[in-house]
């Protein structure tokens, strides 16, 4: 994930870069976020955040979202995205029990007993992940407290939030539109 910070306050910019990284980790969106760009002007005050992300692809079984390898006592599941970690662990725990499921790494899960063919069919959720809701939650965590979101623009895989303390000015959305968010 690439983070771009354009700030008139170097210390504040560094702090918000840290907040963005931690919030992305906390929400397990690391694999979904391609680029996060922030424009901060403390003298206005204005905060714009533009997030480029991978859209959810409607994958709901463990076989669709991971690579599964046979191991001596079971299987190793290697997820393609952190976004699926929580749902995968819940489904595996409820099906096989917590004592048979071990998170071996950030994106790896060891399952004692079942073979890959059985695990590939395991349904991990009923409907696809709503990425725009997850991205909105991420932006809400990053935007400074006291700032109200004045404008949100959406395009496939891209969201821009303009937040300020004062009433919206016409050129603020144009600044957001011009911001680069390339990975």
Write up what this structure looks like.
Helix content is 32%, strand content 32%. The chain is α+β, with helices and mostly antiparallel strands. The protein starts with a strand and ends in a 5-residue tail after the last helix.
Topology:
Layout: E1 2-7, H1 10-26, E2 33-41, E3 46-53, H2 62-65, E4 66-71, E5 74-79, H3 85-96, E6 101-103, E7 108-112, H4 116-120, H5 131-142, E8 148-155, E9 158-164, H6 170-178
Parallel strand pairs: 1-2
Antiparallel strand pairs: 2-3, 3-9, 4-5, 5-7, 6-7, 8-9
Uncertain segments are none
Helix content: 25-40%
The major pleated sheet works out as: 5 strands, mixed
**In terms of structural class, how would the helical and strand content be classed?**
alpha+beta
CATH C-level class of the largest domain is Alpha Beta
Based on the structure given, which CATH architecture of the largest domain is correct?
Answer: 2-Layer Sandwich
Q: Give the helices and strands as they follow along the chain.
A: EHEEHEEHEEHHEEH
Strand proportion, as a percent range, falls in 25-35%
Q: What overall geometry do the principal axes of the alpha carbons give? A: elongated
**Number of distinct beta strands:** 9
Helix count equals 6
Distance between the termini: 7 Å
Strand order of the largest sheet: 1-2-3-9-8
What is the radius of gyration computed over CA atoms, rounded to a whole number of angstroms? Answer: 20 Å
Count of structural domains? 2
**Overall pLDDT:** 91
What fold name goes in the CATH topology slot of the largest domain? Alpha-Beta Plaits
